[in-house]
Structures are given as C-alpha cells and as structure tokens.
Design a protein that fits this description.
By secondary structure, this protein is α+β, with helices and mostly antiparallel strands. It has 3 helices and 6 strands, in the order ββββααββα. The strands form 2 sheets. It has a 4-stranded antiparallel β-sheet with strand order 1-2-3-4. The longest helix has 12 residues. It starts with a strand and ends in a 23-residue tail after the last helix. About 5% of the residues have low confidence.
Length: about 120
C-alpha cells in the first residue's frame, strides 16, 4: 500500500497522483482506477494523447451508445469507452494542467439532451 502520495493533477472527474516511495502512478477517473509503473504510465499517456476524438465519433456515428471513443485493455474482452468531454479531462490530467474553472462554461461541457416541444 502506497503511503506517500503526491497529487500531480486534478479535474472534476478524477485525479492523477504518484507514490514517491515506490514510483507507482495512480489514476482515479469516474469509476475507474489504475496503477501504472513508470513505463506503463508513459505508454498510456502516449496512447491517450494520440487519440483522435473526431475519428472515433465519426466511425461510431450510428452506434446507439453515448460514449464512442474506445481505449482497449490487455484483457481481450474489456474496452473502456469514453465521450469527448471525458477524453478531454483525461488528457488534461496527463498534461499536468490543473482544470481551470471559469465563470462561463462551454456548450460541450453540458451533458443534456435538449428536446424542443
């Protein structure tokens, strides 16, 4: 169990931290938790930052699922699915930038289906 945890970055949905004793990275995001060695951390970061959200959203445009951006795992029957906002937050965790809260929000930040009557 890691005891000397230092937070690297934080967003609304999660946090990236490191144990300074054993050099293990901890990623908590929504209901997902990962522990990475330094090599695994670098590999995941490289993969994450290379994801093209528009490509995946267009590829699965007809899918009836809300989250269309996949991140595969080593387990062949497990794929983690994210939406554009979640990927944006994940990327910001790995870019060492604190999520800046402003007075105004972007339209992409609103997760709501508008129904006009």
């Amino acid at each position: 169990m890691c005891t000397n945890i230092k937070t690297i970055s934080k967003v609304t949905s999660g946090e990236l931290s490191i144990c300074t004793n054993c050099n293990v990275y901890h990623l908590e995001f929504n209901n997902i938790y990962f522990e990475f060695s330094e090599a695994q951390y670098k590999q995941f970061k490289k993969y994450l930052l290379a994801i093209e959200e528009v490509y995946w959203e267009n590829k699965y445009v007809d899918a009836k699922v809300k989250r269309k951006i996949p991140i595969p795992s080593l387990q062949s029957n497990l794929v983690l699915m994210f939406n554009r906002q979640e990927i944006k937050e994940l990327k910001s965790l790995f870019c060492n930038k604190e999520h800046v809260y402003t007075k105004y929000i972007n339209v992409d930040d609103i997760d709501y289906t508008l129904i006009l009557n």
